Amino acid sequence: MGLGGISVTQLLIILGIVILVFGTKKLKNIGSDLGGALKGFKNAMGEEDDKKSEDSKPQIEEENDTFDVKAEKVEETSDEKLS
Question: Which residue range(s) make up the domain with 36?
Answer without folding.
Answer: 3-82
